[in-house]
Design goal:
By secondary structure, the protein is an alpha/beta fold. The chain has one domain: Rossmann fold, CATH 3.40.50.
Amino acid sequence: MSFALDRQRFIIMGIVSQTSVVCLLLGLSSAKDVPAFYIFGDSLVDVGNNFYMKTLATPLFPNGIDFGNGYRVPSGRYSNARLVPDIIGQEVGLKNFPPPCLAPTTVGDVLLNGVNYASSGSGILKATGESYGDHISLENQISYFEKTRKDIISNIGIQAAKKLLREAIYILFIGTNDVRDISNVVDGGAALDTIISSLRSQLTRLYKLGARKFVVGNCGPYGCIPFTRDEYGVKDGCVSAANQRAQRFEDAVNACCNVVGAHGGIIPCTTISQVCSDRTKNVFWDPIHLTESANLIAAKHLLDGDLNYTSPMNLRQLVNT
């Protein structure tokens, strides 16, 4: 398999490779309609929570340039358009994009369609992302979900709420920022153990709150993104040291929205950035995040992929379980 011909395939596999699609069923009936998506994570899936906080991690325009919000109106997403949860939600019949939990309009019946708790810059550990300013750690994201659960029970009653929550899909894309923060730690193995233990604890907490269907994204190839390659001055290939704690893939695709850096990886996509004219040809939107075109490929593999991409089943099978 030629590296030159398969660079893009490898980076997309890094997003969905070994995604854990876990269905924890206790005598549940089949449900083909997805009542809700509850989404947790970092900037890979954040849709605007950071707009409501004091933080450097805010996706200003031209982020969202192709989303359709209007001229120079950002979408809250670190991409030119839709993210993976947006795409798969539409594909399985979700009525609306789950809104950010901090939006004042995310109340009442809106909660029944799903909520997005993700926060750019955040991680599994509470300390991850503190350098950006305010953020919502995974633990605090689940605390917000706990409040959502109480509000749903108050709205539709305990039995209907339990049914909705057990049939909902719980998406977690988080961990890359934790990997970044420990990339230079001497005892990386011990640090990883702490991260994994914390993730296990938070997943158990969600289970106790009624969650049964989980989609947990693997940590992508951090050493291959434009940010890391420019940070380490790598012209070709990936930064192997940064990848040892993530996944070992190879990629040489530049950022579409860029300011400086050999790969456009020094400064995040912002108002002074230059944007490539044809976003459909780029895998990377900015130094870290993917274009909608790349997200579409990742979403396709997550929805209908085989065991090379999702385990023990794909998302469409999970929905129909």
